[in-house]
Design goal:
There is one protein chain. This protein has 10 helices and 7 strands. The protein is an alpha+beta fold. It has 2 domains: 147 residues, no CATH class; 101 residues, no CATH class. The strands form 3 sheets. The protein has a 3-stranded antiparallel beta sheet. Strands 1-2 form a two-stranded antiparallel sheet. The longest helix has 32 residues. The N and C termini lie far apart (54 Å). 27% of the residues are buried.
Amino acid sequence: MAEEKKDEMVPVTAEYDVVDQVDDQAIVELMTGQTIQDYVYSFKQGGRTVEGLTLAGINEAANRRGGIQVEEINYEERDNSWIATAKAIDTITGSSRFGAYEQPKMTGSRPDPFAFTKAIHKAQRNAIKQLIPVPVIREVLNFYLNRKAGSGNSAAQPQAQLSSGNIVQAQKAAFAIANNLAEPLEKKGITKEDLWNYIKRKYSVESRNDMSEMQWTQLSAELKAAETTPQLLNDLCERIKQLTTAAQESEVPVTDEEPEEKPSTSPEEPKTEAEQSDKTPF
């Protein structure tokens, strides 16, 4: 029994070795101006499939999530290696994480001309990855795995159903936090309609049904940060006001002298649930 259990386990070093090999190639491609090919890795080990994001995939996920920045990078040269540390911060939630990596100067028996660059990039990778929400990682991972496998992937339909359920949960979480923020925002002159208009402009959507799971997750993080920290609440209000002002300034006023002919719909006709929802779903 012990041997069977051992065979099913994936050694940690095996996954790290594969990731490092793929990321080494990506860094070399980046430094030499080539097109990066691999955003995900997938391999069989011990009777199971191991999947994850490469350095390029992590950067893609961070770009989709938004708000993640690397603030500090430090390095140290040793006789046989470079050691780098990086600090990444989530500007939406205020959270920060450190990542580190030690890169050998030699590749086998030959000097590695990219050893220093690899150490820096991998330290940043290790810091950034800790700040990316799991739904965003899963979205990028599934996207590139499905693209590799082709449109006929049998797992695509179950995953779509799972994703639909995740969107509902992410949406409910954002609604709950937005309702908690309603009173603090009102005190600062921000209505629910102002908040919804800000969300629509930020994510370029017209309806809540247009938003993805990743966008709902990102919105939840932004609202939760504002709920827990007064300064971040002020920052959110400032962003809403700035975006509202910019939208108003970009609007072209109607200059026709003749009033626009309105439809003959009765003014007392009630709005549909969808129309009310799009005005403010909170």
